Structures are given as C-alpha cells and as structure tokens.
C-alpha cells in the first residue's frame, strides 16, 4: 500500500551517505526488518521512483529511517541529497522478501559490504530490542574507516549487548588510522573469527561481493537453505 509521509530529519552519516527519517503521521505501515521501500518524488513536474532499504526497527511505528548513498546515476538519490528538505512530502510503499523475524533462527550472521549494511542495520536494531534469544554476528567490510556506516551505534550496541558482535574490515585503509582487520571478507576471516557456520546467513553488498560470499559459504558447506541475499545493482 502506498502512503504519503513527511521528511522529519536529515543527517550526514558519512562523507557520501545521508540518513532520512520519515514521519508516518500515525498511518499503518507494516514491514519486516531487512525490507525496502519504493520511494516516489516529483522532480521537474514528473514522478520519479527509487528503491531504498529501511534501516529502522519495524517495531517503532511512528517513523521509518533510510540511509542513502550519493551516486552519479539515480535521479531520486541526487534529488534527496541535493534538494530534499525537512517537511517535504513523499510517497512510499514496502517491498522485498529479504528479511528476518525472530522465529527464523536463534543464530544469524550478517555479511555486509559498503552501503549494503542498510537492510542489515534494520535486522540488528530489531534483534537488539526485540529478539532476546537471538545471537548475531555482523561481518562488515568497507574501503576506509570513515565509510563505516553507523559505526558508533554498532560499537555501543555490541558493548552493552553480549548477543551482538561486530567484525569490521577495511579494504583500503590509506592514510586513515586503523588498527583492526584489513582485506575482503573470506573463508579465513570467518574461520579466524569463529563464525557460527550453523547460523542463518544474510548477505548484502555490491554484486561482486554477493558472488564472492556465496562461493565462500558454499566452500564452507553452508547449505543454500541457510543463505539469504539481496543485491540492487
């Protein structure tokens, strides 16, 4: 169902990513952690649509959050980064079959690359607040430390919640200070970190990362029935 909502807040999360909070205005909008929305706006008199993953916990009924990376292609993305203002009205509708609910598994592993963290963030927030028996490990790879989306929140969450664990890895540290793991996610990293191979796995990131992770998990004998993945490109 398509509904009209209002942009309530805009925040710069990383050099290329902004988050948007959308006020649902008391309207009924049901979704599961990990799903996305079609996002409709009018640009130069014509309607345009973009698709963005929801980052918020679906048990919070007053709003939804999105985190959107600026790119050179998406008309809606360009509009949101350059022209959108608090108070603007937009239309949304929910979609996608990539999601987690607590009855699906008591142990989950999230493999994320870059902006692919966004649907996984919704799952993490849901597990933190609403799945008290679920253990979660996030393995998250980005190019540089400044690209780690929601880093402070993720670190604080893992510090206070023993069921949640973060493994960050940087592929191109450059001049930024970094003392953690480096390199792409691979079988050695998962084994070194003692990742639960009997868990339910969720993968989200660029196409090459998706294919790499599928190959890694198959090589570790994780059955297809315990692998979920989503890619947008």
CATH architecture of the largest domain: 3-Layer(aba) Sandwich
Q: Low-confidence segments, ≥5 residues, pLDDT <50?
A: none
CATH homologous superfamily identity of the largest domain: Nucleotide-binding domain of ferredoxin-NADP reductase (FNR) module
For the biggest sheet, the summary is: 6 strands, antiparallel
- Separation, N- and C-terminal Cα atoms: 25 Å
Content of β-strand: 35-45%
Strand order of the largest sheet: 4-3-6-1-2-5
Query: Total number of helical segments?
Result: 5
CATH fold category name of the largest domain: Rossmann fold
Whole-number average pLDDT? 95
Number of domains: 2
**Tell me, what is the CATH class of the largest domain?**
Alpha Beta
Q: Please write the string of helix (H) and strand (E) elements.
A: EEEEEHEEHEHEEHEHE
What does the overall shape look like? Answer: globular
